[in-house]
């Protein structure tokens, strides 16, 4: 084998792609072997011994045994009496003894991974059979689906109230968009690419009754595709030193971590934060009670830097002594070092009593004798209330790091809990259309902590599962800009109402702790619906008579799939179906690529876009 290796090195020595300083470049050889690179095959075929060793003769046709070659190239040169056949490398092997990293196939795979899931649900109790657009087979449909969309119903909200079609619209505005979040993200790409500092999302957890009701047969696969599509476009919006924080529970957390590895890069994983979301376990809990959520943090690149958390009043209270010498408040600290050094073992003399003190056995002082003597002379050593005790270091508040390094365990005392969040919602009177409160809000203390760690004032914060609007409320109180996307119908009774209260100075949540007094504004807009209007009407009909009226409108205005022939539509046969079956038929007929109006078709008279909306879209997209 050594001779064979020498022959290979001799054969490739003049090709700098494969050798360097008489050593084989194993990664390049492995890569080209996997690709069956012609130049490499030509080299190997030119040497009779190498050809015989790495090619099989099948009916007078030579077949390259790339696995054998890769294994040979990557083998270590063991001594003849080696007791192991394994290489000096740790990793996963397949059943043939090949390293996965060499085969490059350690990835999370699932049905529909190569597809786009539009995810058009806009009601909590809605179950939809979604179309999966294959990235290879349907690129034109996907391009059209992702085209920027026309926005409508522009409004600015400030302390003076609601203002339609605001003429002072600008890029610094806080923004709330109602509509499909995947399409809204793609609509924002050109405007906000590389400008968002922090993304926080609290997506559906894919549990029973949590709002993710798509494709029951492939629920887990659908969820992964749904999240992957949105992560990929959101990554493009992040600035290089930005970060994404994803709130999730145990049901999908570990799959999500691997998915984030693939989208953002494993090297950009920062931490899996454990947030104690409950202060007590439920009495009727079965099995092991759920007490925490995961917050998985990834950066856009290695330039990400965290901010320190503000010191708490409780921490500062520890500094209760003050000598009145202008050095400020201090507390006592241990004089012993954590690691041992012989030169730091010496007696410290109490100047008041003359008594000498040595460190405990196998311990030493934290500084040299010269430094300790200086501390004694400068009155930076405390010898007890009566001056007759053992030495202790004075730790001054002014010299302490003015902030706390965040750790991965967030107890509810620091970051709030679910019950606290629900009380915040109830106090704001955010009642939804069905008379209930938003079911899964997050506490403002949690978002305050995240936003303070990952951003600075005036940075842009993005939340594309905006929910009850907590991210926007906290961002506004912390003087950040924000973009909120939400497709559910509770946008107005939850988010708009909440942010209006923030502007007028509400005192809930973190308001008092940050001295919030109100102010600011935000702009609201909606994706302009087209076929989506008919989907909404179909799903809300209660009788067959109502549904037939909707079908009459669809024939005049809706876009049908290319393979739907209306001339062969048998209305009598259709009328014999049950109402739910009729709905399914009509929903299947609609072209899902025309759910919303593309910006490029804004001037098409078919859509009857008003002059006001045209003007606002030109201003928003910078088309003036």
Quick description:
The chain is α/β, with parallel strands linked by helices and 624 residues long. The protein is built from 22 helices and 23 strands. The relative contact order is 0.11.
CATH class category name of the largest domain: Alpha Beta
Total domain units: 4
Main sheet specs: 11 strands, mixed
Number of strands: 23
CATH superfamily of the largest domain: Vaccinia Virus protein VP39
Q: Please, what is the average pLDDT?
A: 88
Helix content: 25-40%
Backbone shape: flat
Stretches where pLDDT falls below 50 for ≥5 residues? Answer: 77-85, 209-218
Number of helices: 22
User: How does CATH name the architecture of the largest domain?
Assistant: 3-Layer(aba) Sandwich
**CATH fold-level assignment of the largest domain:** Rossmann fold
How does this structure look, described?
It is a single chain. With 624 residues, the protein is α/β, with parallel strands linked by helices. The protein has four domains: 2-103, no CATH class; 117-304 and 406-527, Vaccinia Virus protein VP39 (Rossmann fold), CATH 3.40.50; 313-399, no CATH class; 531-594, no CATH class. It is built from 22 helices and 23 strands. It has an eleven-stranded mixed β-sheet with strand order 8-7-23-9-22-21-10-11-13-12-20, with helices on both faces. Strand 16 and strand 17 (356-357) form a beta hairpin. The longest helix is centred in the middle third of the chain and has 19 residues, at 219-237. It is flat, with a radius of gyration of 33 Å. It starts with a helix and ends with a helix.
């Amino acid at each position: 084998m050594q001779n064979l290796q020498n022959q290979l090195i001799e054969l490739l020595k003049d090709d700098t792609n494969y050798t360097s300083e008489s050593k084989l470049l194993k990664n390049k050889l492995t890569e080209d072997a996997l690709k069956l690179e012609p130049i490499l095959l030509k080299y190997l075929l030119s040497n009779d011994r190498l050809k015989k060793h790495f090619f099989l003769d099948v009916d007078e046709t030579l077949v390259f045994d790339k696995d054998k070659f890769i294994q040979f190239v990557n083998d270590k040169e063991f001594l003849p009496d080696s007791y192991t056949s394994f290489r000096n490398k740790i990793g996963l092997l397949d059943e043939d003894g090949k390293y996965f990293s060499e085969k490059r196939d350690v990835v999370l795979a699932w049905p529909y991974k190569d597809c786009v899931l539009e995810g058009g649900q806009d009601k909590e109790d809605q179950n939809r059979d979604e179309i999966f657009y294959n990235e290879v087979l349907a690129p034109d449909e996907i391009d059209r689906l992702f085209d920027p969309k026309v926005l409508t119903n522009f409004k600015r909200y400030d302390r003076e109230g609601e203002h339609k079609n605001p003429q002072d619209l600008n890029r610094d505005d806080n923004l709330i968009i109602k509509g499909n979040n995947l399409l809204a993200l793609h609509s924002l790409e050109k405007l906000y690419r590389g400008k968002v500092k922090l993304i926080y999302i609290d997506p559906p957890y894919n549990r029973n009754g949590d709002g993710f009701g798509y494709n029951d047969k492939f629920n887990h696969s659908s969820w992964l595709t749904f999240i992957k599509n949105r992560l990929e476009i959101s990554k493009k919006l992040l600035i290089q030193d930005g970060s994404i924080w994803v709130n999730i529970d145990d049901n999908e957390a570990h799959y999500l971590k691997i998915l984030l590895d693939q989208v953002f890069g494993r090297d950009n994983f920062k931490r899996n934060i454990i947030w104690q979301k409950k202060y007590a376990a439920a009495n009727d809990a079965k099995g092991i009670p759920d007490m925490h959520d995961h917050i998985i943090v990834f950066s856009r690149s290695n330039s990400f830097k965290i901010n320190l958390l503000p010191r708490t009043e409780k921490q500062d209270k520890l500094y209760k002594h003050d000598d009145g010498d202008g050095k400020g408040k201090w507390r006592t600290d241990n004089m012993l070092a954590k690691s041992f050094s012989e030169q730091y073992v010496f007696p410290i003399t109490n100047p008041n009593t003359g008594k000498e003190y040595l460190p405990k056995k196998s311990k030493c002082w934290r500084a040299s004798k010269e430094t300790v003597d200086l501390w004694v002379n400068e009155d930076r050593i405390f010898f007890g209330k009566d001056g007759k005790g053992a030495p202790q270091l004075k730790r001054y508040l002014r010299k302490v790091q003015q902030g706390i390094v965040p750790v991965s365990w967030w107890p509810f005392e620091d970051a709030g809990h679910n019950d606290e969040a629900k009380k915040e919602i109830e106090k704001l009177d955010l009642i939804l259309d069905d008379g209930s409160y938003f079911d899964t809000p997050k506490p403002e203390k949690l978002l305050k902590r995240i936003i303070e760690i990952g951003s600075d004032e005036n940075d842009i914060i993005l939340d594309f599962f905006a929910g009850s609007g907590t991210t926007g409320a906290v961002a506004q109180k912390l003087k950040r800009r924000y973009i909120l996307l939400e497709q559910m119908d509770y946008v107005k009774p939850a988010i708009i109402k909440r942010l209006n209260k923030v502007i007028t100075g509400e005192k809930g949540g973190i308001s008092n702790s940050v001295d919030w007094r109100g102010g600011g504004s935000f702009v609201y807009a909606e994706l302009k619906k087209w076929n989506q209007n008919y989907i909404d009407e179909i799903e809300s009909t209660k009788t067959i008579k109502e549904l037939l009226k909707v079908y009459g409108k669809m024939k005049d205005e809706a876009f049908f799939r290319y393979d739907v022939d209306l001339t062969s539509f048998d209305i009598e046969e259709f009328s014999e179906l049950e109402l739910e079956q009729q709905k399914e038929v009509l929903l299947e007929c609609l072209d899902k690529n025309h759910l919303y109006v593309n910006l490029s078709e804004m001037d098409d008279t078919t859509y009857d876009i008003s002059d006001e909306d045209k003007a606002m879209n030109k201003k928003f997209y910078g088309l003036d």
